[in-house]
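Hi there, hope your week has been kind to you so far. Would you mind checking whether the tokens look sensible for this chain? I owe you a coffee for this, so here goes:
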Amino acid sequence: MSVTKQVDVVVVGASLGGLTSAALLAHRGHRVVVVDALEQPGGRCGSVEHHGYHIAFGHRDGHGVGDNVFGLPLHYVAAVRAMGAELHTRPLAGGMRLHRLPARTSEDLHLGGRPGVDRLEGARATVQVLTGRDDVTDETASGYLDTMRRLMSTSDDEQVRLVPVTLGDWLDRNVEDSVVRTAILQVGEVMFPSPSENTSVGRLIGFLQQSRAYGSRGFYPEDPDAAGMQGLVSPLVRVIERHGGELWLGWKPLEIVVEDRRVTGVVAVDAANLVQEFVAPVVITDYPGWALLELVEEELLPSGFGEMSRRMLDHSNDFAGWWAGLGRLPTRRSDGETEDMPGWHRVLWGDESVKRYHGAFQFASCHSSKIAPAGKHLLEVVISHWGEGEGRRWRHWRDARAAVDRILDYVRWYYTDLDECVEWSQYQYLSGPEMRACHLKPVARHPVKVATIEGLYMAGCTSEGLGAYQDLECEAAMEAVALVEAQMGRPR
């Protein structure tokens, strides 16, 4: 095997951003290589098979924005269509239930309004659930609607201007009704950018506007080659391989080679630390900004790039969870019925008016039968350290386990027979950075094109854009591909 390989584009990272970039370029005739340290493509956006169950967040050293429900597919769908991939999905079963601790109360939340209810009455019900108040007036319900409309109708220029403005400050200046302020801050906690007062108004506006654009197109991947979130990854991999692209998995990128401020390739090592050199005039990476600092000398990057990336890193945290394979679904204590809600259960904590996001749980198998063996179910309980504060790490595993157990104790109380349903269970832990934490924060992100290095592009979750969570990587990838072809043209 040669230690040098020449191609048109090297893609560093096999999360959604890297795979989308590689698939689009390979489809258009470019010679592409994808290099990633993981043995399996997908980064934290994918899932890992475990005894017939498919576990999200399962890639130990994966990067990208982890999750296990891809309900925001606008840019992903656009990219898949552009590369001619075959997409297999099913409608995303949704809904959300809020659980308040330590009070141990719960109620279903319909942020878009309850079906069959007029908008004012729906807004009243939403505010009631968000605030726990039964005395919501027409004026307050109307004020909530008006504030949400104002946010979602903001111009692009104003949205950018409001990126450094925090939601707490904006509400104090623009909303007089304290109940409306509490309700909107609680929306932030439900979407988990805790503490919601520190959410960027500009980022929140972009998220709400993009979410509205997604409409009813939420889906769960049902790919014939892979289950769970890996079903998002498989169509991209098939396109890359069908058009002659190569995936070098298990090869850790060591350096993006830059000479005279031009990219000339990438150096990677395998598990034996044997070296492979890739020569190319273009490199696209889906690594987050702070990871690029390990591959390129900081002085070659734009002024302030390192500081900006470290500011985003300050908003990232550890992640822990608990997964259980179930022989059947459990019974709710509240009504004696078998659980039938496939959506997320958000756990909020505290006695203040705004309850803090504390974690969540859901039955992933209710979205997809393929995520568990036939007749079985999969329950996940998750918590990120940013549910307890920003930019922090658990000092010891016992602290992370205790945080999970606080939610798990409640889940065991909420269902009368959970332990009878459990056939196996295991904790999960990912050391930081867990990157969703920085998504809605009032910090600048880097552009897709690295201005100071010719041929270097970034298509990851810390790139600037309006996409939400995983979809941001796909949006950045499409922009990177457009810029690359503007630089080098299309193959003949």
Q: What stands out?
A: The longest helix spans residues 470-488. The radius of gyration is 23 Å. The chain has three domains: 4-90+221-312+442-488, 111-214, 316-438.
